[in-house]
Structure formats: structure tokens, C-alpha cells
Amino acid sequence: MDEGNNMKKPVIVFFSQYKLGGVQNYYQLLIDNDAERAFDKIRIFTKNINDTAALPIKSFQKYAREIVFPYDKPDKETLKALCKLIPRNAALAIANFHIELAALHYNNRGVNAIVHICHDDFFLDIACQFSFLIDVFIVHNYAYYKKLNEILPEQRKNDIYYLPYGISLSSHKRDPNLISKLKLFFLARFDKKKGVYDVFDIDGLLEAKGINVEWTLVGDGPEKDGVIKKAAGKNNFRVLTLPNTQAIYEMAAGQDVFVLPSYLDGLPLALLETMSVGLVPVISEFNEGIRRIVTEETGFVCGVGNHQEFAETLAFLDRNRSLIDKKGEAARKKIEAEFDIKTRAKDYYELFGNFEALRKTAYYKYKAQFGNNWWNYFKWVLKKRMKL
């Protein structure tokens, strides 16, 4: 696909997996909020044909071309085929996972600069493995910004950018709930690492305290059938998959508390969305950076896997409904002030606009150390480290 040479605007290539999740929404918001429409955008979805996870909902065709790249295994021919989807001389390639980075190393087709997004702990390892190839690192959670600065060589410090992202603000706002059952809202990918099954244990502890609550679990993912089965027969649980962000805002506005007992996360988009309508977050401390958002004024942070602490916090809120209103309003104002995507996206595109200056010497400097054995190195990386 060589039409990149004929495009009038510089091209950004966004890579992501072909499944629902925060990474996909993160890119959707960036793509939709290029206020100056300064770039042409191509999004390449990599889809492992053995992965049965749900597919993303297409909603930004107006501003980006989408390409789905199905594959069976990340061998040399697969990487070669993936490379051919990249327009020649693209301004930027925005990457996350091993497969696209290995493909860019195999043949980057003249991409001016390679940007890696480090979302959470899983991506720290990838950033280090491919640091010789990556020109710019973007981190949206301050905890991982600090970690990446600690583990990368000193000469890469100026290549690491802390750029929080934002959300599209909604007019929906939570109504006070003084007498009805406490309404608890889980919004995340249905995955064990997100703590989706933990909510059932937390509910059991609340029931033992004599506290009856209503749970709404919203999401999709590999554990969806298991969650539906687990919730069957429980009259205080409902499990939903909503079609878009607008539907999520409408549903969230009718809830009281956002509960996320996650074990692995960066900066959950769901956290920002639910806080923006006035829900009080009660979440696990899956990374220390989350306390920059969930403060004493806006919510509660519990120990990872500490169901008892979650239950005690929710019981406390059940007894103190006016506190939900107070903290919820503080949460809403914080998101409006600090996480409006229209403001945050400007920071990203200001950086992207300097794409000609972003290329570093890292690739050419470190490539020499692998010599003619670079492909053997990547076969080892893909075999030992790749998680698809």
C-alpha cells in the first residue's frame, strides 16, 4: 500500500489489537479530537485468529481508515505482510505490542518516528526490549512515567513524555440517592485481571453485614459468559454490554459508586468517565499513580485483592449517603478541570506536529550491536515474551 506518497497531509499510523478495551478507546478519542485535522490517520488492528475476544465497535470512520490484519503466528512472513500495510514515509507510527514493533524493525518503510505508548506494567517490559527502535515514549500515568525513567538509560530521559489523556465530557449528572439501595457500577473489560469476579465476593461480605445493594456490571471480553453464569439467579446483579460511550454515560448517571477491584491497570478510561458524571470511585491501588486522581476528596483506594476493605468502604458509604454527593461532585469537577479530551488532545498533537524532529539515533545506534543476528533476537523475543 504505497499511496502514502500521494497523501497531502502527514500520516499517523495507529496500531492496536482488534478487541474491545481501554487502549482502543484511548486511540479513538485521540483520532476524533485532532482539532486542526492536521494528519491523515490509518488504524491497523492486529487480530490473532485464535483470540475469541470481542471486536471493537467502529465509530470513527469519518476521521480514519481502518485495516484489520488477521494472523495465525508472528513469523517472518507475518511481519512482512504487516509491514506492507504501513504507508511509505508515514510521519509517525504509534505502537503498543511486540508484533507491530517487530514488524517496524523488520521494515519500517521510511516511518519518520516510532512512538510507543506505555499503558501499564505489561508495557514497561516491551518498552525496554524495543528501546533501541523506539524514538519517543508516551506515558499517561505518572507512576509509569517514573518507572520508565528509572529503568531506561540516562540518554533516553528526554524521549519520555508524560501526557495524561482525557474523555469527552457529558452533560449527564448523577442524581442523589438517599433512600434506595446503594447502586454499584462495575465498568471494565470482563477479565480476571480487572477483578470482575471479585465483585461477587465483595457482595457476599456486604450481604453478611446485612447490606443489600444493586450491582450493574458493564463490559465485554473473555469472561463474559462466566460472569453471566455467575450472576444468574442473583436478583441484585445485572450484566450488560453497552453499544457506545453515550449509553455508558446514561447508565452511569443512574448509579452511585464506581467499583473497580482491578489487579492490573494503567489509567482506566472507565474511571474518568464515571467520575465525570459524579460517581464516587472505590478502586484498588493497582498502581500508585492512581492516587493522583482518586484523592481523599474524590473517592477511596483499597488494597489489591482486599475484599474486606472494599466491603467496609461500601458499607460506610451506604450509611453516609450525603458523603457520596459531596465526593461525587468533587470527582466530577476534577475530571472537568483536568481531563477534558479537547485540552488533553492538544498536548498530543502538539508533540505529533514536531514529528520531523522526533526521530532519534536510537535505532541506528543500537542496531549495530545485533549485526546480522537481529532476526534471531526477535524470534527469541516473540517466542519467549509475546502474549497474544
Q: How would you summarize what this structure contains?
A:
38% of the residues lie in helices and 18% in strands.
Describe the structure.
- The chain has 388 residues and is α/β, with parallel strands linked by helices.
- The protein folds into two domains: 3-166 and 341-384, Rossmann fold (3-Layer(aba) Sandwich), CATH 3.40.50; 182-338, Rossmann fold (3-Layer(aba) Sandwich), CATH 3.40.50.
- Helices cover 38% and strands 18% of the residues.
- The chain is built from 15 helices and 13 strands.
- It has helices at residues 22-32, 76-83, 98-106, 121-129, 142-151, 198-208, 224-231, 245-252, 269-276, 307-319, 321-338, 341-352, 355-358, 362-370, 374-384, and strands at 11-17, 40-48, 65-71, 92-95, 113-118, 136-139, 160-162, 182-187, 213-218, 237-240, 257-260, 280-284, 300-302.
- A seven-stranded parallel sheet has the order 3-2-1-4-5-6-7, sandwiched between helices.
- Helix 4 runs parallel beside helix 5.
- The chain starts with 10 loop residues before the first strand and ends with a helix.
- Mean pLDDT is 88; it is low at 1-6, 362-372 and 384-388.
